[in-house]
Specification:
This protein is an alpha/beta fold. The protein has eleven helices and eight strands. The protein is elongated and about 65 Å long.
Length: about 280
């Protein structure tokens, strides 16, 4: 949306600026419906002004409003005992598991990583490598074993070992595969039953660089009723950042974290104001 920032400072009439805003939002992958909604709110908020700076200020306020109610981490007074990471293949679940584990361990939590993707040996090996680098234990099952059974055994280890947080890396789902989605429900039921005294979170991992395709994935995974948040990966630029607006608008789920690179330290809490500044500056 850098082009919009230039137009807002060009001295054009308000309606021309608003037309440019709608175009910029669509090009940034916000989608037509969200672009229309945002443009309408900005038009309503600038009735008494006709200059670019006023339109830009109204835009920033509207975007922060859109994102802020859906921002925020889990309840600090009741932190999660389990975080299930779900999503389509290639979204970055395993690396995200390592990033979350690193942040939690740095905060003093005892973390158990669980390699529940038993369909891909490479995924288990990748998580084991991350565990070794971070100095954290990784619970693994045999290749091809029942993922729900692996999680059941991991829950027992979590309780007996006195861990604070269990992070479960699930298999990448083709979101139209009903059997795999049902398996995800089974895993959620098991951890909720076996670790009943701690909140269980389920975070959808989305590759923000996919633009509108990330939105299509989210619509399918929303059918998994246990979702409690979104993690946006590969957000190392804002060229496709408008997809974040569409996801926040449609799903109302908190954006828990954003991944800004491939390194294990490349994760940060989502800051709506900073994101909006980067998007339109």
């Amino acid at each position: 949306m850098a082009r919009f920032g230039e137009i807002a400072a060009s001295g054009r009439p308000r309606e021309e600026i608003l037309e440019a805003l709608a175009e910029s939002l669509i090009l940034a992958d916000a989608g037509v419906a969200v672009a229309d909604k945002i443009t309408g709110a900005v038009r309503e908020g600038t009735k008494k002004s006709d200059d670019g700076p006023a339109v830009e200020a109204a835009l920033k306020a509207e975007l922060v409003r859109l994102l802020s109610p859906k921002n925020g981490g889990p309840d600090d007074a009741h932190p999660p005992g389990v975080i299930l990471l779900v999503g389509a293949n290639g979204g970055g679940k395993t690396t995200t598991a390592a990033k979350i584990a690193r942040r939690a361990a740095a905060g003093g939590q005892r973390v158990l990583l669980v390699a529940a993707d038993t369909f891909r040996a490479a995924a288990q090996e990748q998580l084991a490598v991350w565990g070794k680098r971070l100095g954290l234990p990784v619970h693994r099952g045999r290749p091809g074993s029942d993922p729900a059974a692996v999680v059941f055994d991991a829950a027992a280890e979590y309780k007996s070992g006195g861990y604070d947080l269990m992070i479960v890396d699930t298999a990448g789902r083709i979101h139209t595969n009903a059997n795999l989605m049902n398996e995800l429900d089974k895993i959620k039921r098991i951890v909720s039953r076996e670790i009943a005294d701690r909140p269980v979170e389920a975070w959808l991992i989305l590759d923000a660089g996919l633009g509108q395709n990330a939105l299509f994935q989210a619509r399918e995974f929303r059918k998994f009723a246990g979702l409690t948040g979104v993690v946006l990966t590969k957000l190392d630029g804002t060229a496709k950042g408008g997809a974040v607006l569409a996801i926040a608008d449609e799903f109302g789920l908190p954006i828990r974290l954003i991944g800004t690179g491939e390194g294990v330290e490349d994760a940060e809490e989502f800051d709506p104001a900073a994101f909006v500044d980067a998007l339109i500056s």
